[in-house]
Amino acid sequence: MKPSYIYFDLDNTLLDHSSAESKAQKATYEQYPELQKVDLDVWLSKYKEVNHNLWNQYQQGLVDRHQLQYSRFNDTMLQLELSPEKSTEIGKSYIQNYQKCWSWVDGVEESFAKISDRFDVGLITNGFKETQLKKYKYLSLDRYSDVMIVSEDVGKMKPHPMVFDHATKVAGVPREEILYVGDSYSSDIVGGRNAGWKTAWYTALISKNGEDNIADFEFENFDDLLTILDI
Ligand SMILES: [Mg+2]
Fold first, then answer.
1. The overall pTM is greater than 0.85
2. Do 54 and 139 share a domain, yes or no?
């Protein structure tokens, strides 16, 4: 594969979001006795369900960023019959804890550095601009690229074509010469393919749900990505 430009997703492709989220949830749970009235597992699974539904609503423009950040704790507490009095404070503590738990996905930085030596690379991420910019700085991603397209700036989230059309213009190469590397089937692989890009699906951190594999390449180990890029 010889793309002219390679875009990477950020969360769970370069930055280990899942591990940061779990560690930060555990730390927050341990800070607040009001959460400990239910088991940590119960708390985590309800939070993930509520958060997932709120992100879907955010994607459809039904709630804004502030409602999402407020409701994911408030609604989880209500649904678990916990007093939501401190939900705003707990939400803020969670965000502080989350930022302390950021790290590269194990072993990915070395591969990403090699790829960026040989190819023009950029980032495309859903999520809040303020948070994603902090991640960009935290991982010193400016060493590799000055292009990060954040859905909040575009006004639509992946897999919306507006995100990919904008990114195609920024890359300045024909769309069929762009490769997109990401972990989300629905956002990254479907979105990239619909945009006429090549796609590489990174599946090490996700559990597959029986999706038809429409990616041009699927991998669990970044060494395999290096191989198909002839590095
Ligand atoms: Mg991702």
1. yes
2. no
